[in-house]
């Protein structure tokens, strides 16, 4: 749906054609479609390729239905006009495929429903229905790291149905406090977010004149992650926390509110950022170091945040929300070129908010992770003249702190967090017949106080988790 | 918590429907037919490296360093074969998420891990107060399949590794491990290790 | 348990009625065969991943000061003094000579391998291709360097290679690299055999070739085989096995256990792939060093401590013994120490952020040292040990993949400076399968930016740009990998 691509061939191409507003328009029309609820819509809905432009059969039909009319004003009616067609000839109408979550432009994109159970009753498993014993074992292995013992399994089997469900949740509650869950599984789920590099962290082997070349300590990031995704805490603080989590002498978590100095004999390793400029995982010293590094306009940091905390990977054309007038190409990197502009019209307005934070300044290594009000003006010649606006998810914000808050309150944040746990627990992406359950889980997060633990309790109740 | 309770309230009817099943611990009478209902979803998960290690520690009552050390150079599950066993490796190779599926080497590595753990358990039981192979004289020959010690040993292993009782035909099948290809009894130590290995490397132990 | 019967469920049921169509399509894909290669025709690919951004301007496409023709401009560009550039006799390619250790960590480096020595020895096989990639994000850039930015249905080069040449091999696609270079392709129709076997520990990988060898106290192999046989019976007969007989994950596991593992054990691959020397192998384990280890250590003397070398050494064994047709190795982010000094930088080529020229020289040297060793070994060894099949080199290609290029500018007059990431770069391929001693494309001295070429004619032009897809296509074409979107690069073929 990246309509930029249409500009390549449309005789009547207008400025509207050149805006990649397709995904947003699609979801305004089909708000309940899987692509607009439990998944992220991409250009593939209509395109085989955007560079060079090529459409699939659905995209081609849509293009034909628009018949040269202004895109933004006519997309809804054009979509409606081809709903009953079967553009890819696979036997389901476009509307049906949109509701199902398959691609209406790809005849091979189909969903094979589960087979109806056949044969004699299975004496060990509840086929086709939620099997408490099966779910119980899964809970114990996934969240406690070990199977139920024979005695535990036997005791579980002797419970009546309601008590079995209670026992599943009791087991889960116990497991969610376990070392396995917090120090193994939960920590493992953080790796893509934190992306540790030992050579630059606190465990580095490299010394210069007795100084470790530690530039930042990612253990702060892991602790904040573990802390906020356990104990029924508010997961939104992943993006809004203005404190850090240390360890006391007994190895227990300790909340630290102020500035944390770098340890002696290291270039980094503390948290020097003033609390009022903090935005949880986005502004740890490690995250700013790793993802900003030397960049004047920290696009990598913004893209990483967008991908890891909202589940929107701009390199896969997910979450394209073009901002009018963007990209400004404020640092003359050529991002306004046709091939780049469709993503950078979303990415750059996110990136600007990170520009006040230092990644690495080789002359002042102690600035890593600090807020420097003059940094954009000093590093980006066009900054003052352009006065760029910061925009995330179509909302204008004034700072990274505000941007992160908007992110934390978004549907995308909820969905992404739930998706991570779903894939962990179930072992695959939500399938078409699991999307209703998945949507129910992530949309319940506000009611559950954004607690990861409560989300997991809902998750183990699903058919996706408990039907063998 | 309120929402959880609400959700739970929806479940008893379905849960009751499964109440008549063995629940995984009581053993089942195999119908002898291959025509039982197959899983509708069949989306099995597999025990990743950390869970595999812990489950073997639990089942065989071994310390963490007593499960598997590869050629004396490092932990099989944590350092040498962790990728093959479904672990991530963010620091060494930037593998931030574990691989979704087993690799070519996974069954081989699983065998090494389980074999090592079983040998270590048998050695410990032979050298001190036995914990798992309590019914065997590990310095003697393997018990005959009709010996109580045979059934007790197999049953203990099924309970420890698979959390269920063995089926009659499983006992019968494993009788084949009390002797070698020539029909000569093997040592009780080998019998202990081989039965532990056969059950511990079954797909039922790895997948859930 | 959230049971909502809605329109989606109805549609699911309708989709069931389409089952025949869907199944037919799926079968059509699953049975697709793109060519199985007999030993004599098989090609071999070695992908060497220069993690962090290896700049072609600092290796085989350098610019000299006088070529800029403007001193002030030259002061701001990444150019070399004319005297620093070396063109060996017979070579049409040139490179920088020795770069004195300097800069932030100058005293910590140990420069061990010269670019000009490499060039003088191997220029005949070297092909330099200019390119402009499409991402300056490390992970994305790495991934696109091996998947051609998705040009071949999302298959990585390694997957395509395994599909084309590896169907009869046991583990055709071995990947020891890192980060984006180990990311799988996105083609859901790719057969399982072509997916990569990820190897994090090259020194320990041999042990993954045998289920019991070297496990202290394991019963005799005959007894183990007996146990395995009974286990298979139990697995199929158990209620778990019957219930989950259709589980794809379980099926995949059992297929490897029942079909692949016996082949590996029968071929005694554990002893053949063991890279540990006899003195590090306690005899009690009964494990032998690879018969080729002395040959390998002659070229990879540091393989016990340098993961780059141990990966390269294992890649030779995997190909030589006919296990794989494509191996991928990668520079680690962690620095490697030689004789008390660093022989690689922290974060590999990306240390260019801190000290561009030194990082590039040091790391290019490290990469090329392995290329040199690989070429020597491949030229020395008969494929599968069979003289009738010829030398491995005759069927090999070494592709030096990298994330992206580096910025071409520097602070005026700076001798030591840091650079950011740049889309503009070039690629080195070393192979008898391409026209060697040749640069395709060119470089503008006034910007130090490269420009492209026409793959069908080989003609260069400042108006042309070559993308990841061009590089992918060139490699594919040389390796007999066909796909509809492949760009014609026939001018590059030997």
Given as residue ranges, the uncertain stretches of chain C (5+ residues, pLDDT < 50) are 1-8, 14-35
Total number of β-strand segments of chain C? 14
**Helix share bin of chain C:** 25-40%
- Give the strand tally of chain B: 0
Secondary structure class of chain C reads alpha/beta
Q: What is the radius of gyration of chain C?
A: 25 Å
Strand content of chain B: under 5%
The chain-level mean pLDDT of chain C equals 91
Which two chains form the greatest contact, residue counts included? B-C, 74 and 73 residues
- Identify the CATH architecture of chain C: 3-Layer(aba) Sandwich
Principal-axes geometry of chain C comes out as globular
- What is the CATH domain class of chain C? Alpha Beta
- Kindly state the percentage of residues in helix of chain B: 40-55%
Largest sheet of chain C: 8 strands, mixed
Strand content of chain C: 5-15%
The value of Rg of chain B in angstroms is 20 Å
Low confidence ranges of chain B: 1-20, 23-33
Organism (chain C): Nannocystis punicea
InterPro entries (chain C): TAT_signal
Protein name (chain C): DUF1552 domain-containing protein
Keywords (chain B): Signal
Please give a structural write-up.
The complex is a heterotrimer of chains A (468), B (208) and C (494). Chain A is mostly helical and 468 residues long. Chain A contains 19 helices and eight strands. Chain A folds into three domains: 3-100, no CATH class; 180-408, no CATH class; 411-466. In chain A, the strands form four sheets. In chain A, strands 1-2 form a two-stranded antiparallel ribbon. In chain A, strands 3-4 form a two-stranded antiparallel ribbon. Chain A has a two-stranded antiparallel ribbon with strand order 5-6. Chain A is flat and about 75 Å long. Chain B has one domain (44-206). Chain B has helices at 2-9, 12-17, 49-60, 76-80, 106-127, 148-162, 168-174, 188-200, 203-206. Chain B is globular, with a radius of gyration of 20 Å. Residues 1-20 and 23-33 of chain B have low confidence and may be disordered. Chain C has a single domain (38-208, 304-492), classed as Alkaline Phosphatase, subunit A. In chain C, strands 6-5-7-1-8-11-4-12 form an eight-stranded mixed beta sheet, sandwiched between helices. Chain C has a two-stranded antiparallel sheet with strand order 2-3. In chain C, strands 9-10 form a two-stranded antiparallel sheet. Mean pLDDT of chain C is 91; it is low at 1-8 and 14-35. In chain C, a hairpin with an 8-residue loop joins strand 2 (85-86) and strand 3. Chain C is 34% helix and 11% strand. With 494 residues, chain C is of the alpha/beta class. Chains in contact: A-B, A-C, B-C. At the B-C interface, helix 5, helix 7, helix 8 and helix 9 of B face strand 6, helix 8, helix 9 and helix 10 of C.
